Structure formats: structure tokens, C-alpha cells
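Pipeline run #58 for the internal structure catalog. This entry was flagged by the ingest filter as a single-chain record with no existing model, so it goes straight to prediction. Upstream metadata was stripped on purpose; only the residue string is passed forward. Reviewer on rotation: M.T. Logging verbosity set to normal.
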Amino acid sequence: MKIIRIINNNVVSSVDDKCKEVVIMGKGIGFRKKPGEFIDDQAIEKIFHLPSENMTQFEELLENMPYEHIKAAKDIIVYARKQLDRHLNKNIYITLTDHLSYAIERQKQNVNVQNALLWEIKKYYHEEYLVGLHALDIIKEQLDIQLPEDEAGFIALHFVNAEMDGDMNSSARIPILIKDIINIVKYSFNIEINEEAFAYERFMMHLKFLVQRAVNEDVYEPDNLELEKSIKAKCRKEYACACKIKKYIESKCIYNVSEEETAYIALHINRVVRNSI
């Protein structure tokens, strides 16, 4: 591949075999190089394939950013892809790299930002939080800078956002909504939920997808009316609790929780309650 533009000593832009622009990172890959020269394959550490509408923004972001910051972000994302094993929006390369660079500079100046959602993130997005903790280890190992635990939460939210293909404001709302929904169940049945039970894990997963749809205003088409009627008849108390949850979600989001969705919430509540008594 040939160099199209030199972004800095460690980052250049080129085109791939499909004639799409890519950003290429490697230690010293752009040093004393000129547009039109061939790229040394041995020097390539990462080729970034981003949507064309985001490429310019990414290049501008990297232009004055230390190579070490870019590499740390890249290594964290590689680790997260393996651990989470989920689709991540490619914009994670822009959002997380930008966030980490600012976080590192803040830490050098002894400026700490408290994460008000840290408890909720740890509880409701535990896998992403563990990735955030490992990210702190990567930064410590590569840059000898120890970021606070609050940053593990912020990093986790970036991955939640990338999983949702949404925005950070939406991602931040989700753990708050889930926490309130769990409290509705606790207070309705006056129980302490057994959070070690598989039924609780399944309920949490169901809630994450439901709340994600609600926050993103995604339409859900019901298709199992018979199951809905059966659950409504057999799980009356749980269905009444599910109706409270339906009302709560609709008060917080522009979203209509269908009767079928309400029935599925009731079914999960039934399983959770039976495993918590």
C-alpha cells in the first residue's frame, strides 16, 4: 500500500484493495516519509477500517495524539472484542481513544472525575466493567499511569455504547432504568432477590434488551398472543408487577411496552421470585 497522507510520525492514511481509505498505525511508520511512498508491511501494527464519514474525524483526532495513547486504546479494544465476543460499533476507535487520551492527561494533572454511575455499571454491566479494569492494567503497564476505578466505569460505558450502536447519553440512562425496575420487583414482593440464581441473570439480560429498545425507541412487533394469555392467567401477581414496570418505562421513554413484552417480564419475575424465597 502507498501513503496518501502522513498524519504524524506513527500514523498514515492509505487505501485498501477495495479502494477504500484506511488509517494505518505503526511506530515510526510515517517518519521521514512522503505521500506516494510504499508502506513497510513490517512496520504495520494496526489497519483501521472506519466508515468514510468518520475517517476524517479519526485522522484529525490522531494527528496530535501521542502514539502510546493510540496503542493503548487499540490494545484495549482488541482485548474487549475477545472478552465480550459481541459486535462493537467501529466508532469505538474514535470515542474510546479520545476519552483515554483526555483521561491520561487529566491524571497527569491530578484531576479526577467521579463516575456517579460506577455502582450501577459494576452491577448491571459486569463484563464490560471487568474489561474496564483490565484497561487500567494495560495503561499502567504501557504508560506507567494508574487511572482510578471511576475510569474503569467510563471505559465500560464506551463498550456498552458500542454494543448498542447508540450514544453515551443513552448508555448512561440504561443502568439507572434497570436499577429502578429491579427495585419495583423487590418492593412489590418484599424480597431480597437472589442475584446468584440463573433466573436473575436471565431477567437481567432480558431487561437490558428491553430497556435498550425503549431508550432507542425501537419498535417491537408481538407475535405470541397465546403465550401472553397463558402467563397473564397463571402469574397474576407477577403480571401486576410487570404492569407497574410497563408504566414506569413508558413514563421515562417514548416507547410503548406491548402486552406480550409485559407478559414476558411477568414470566421472568415469576422465576426470580421463586428463586428468592
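catalog note: The radius of gyration is 23 Å.
catalog note: The first helix runs from residue 52 to 63.
status: ready for reviewer M.T.
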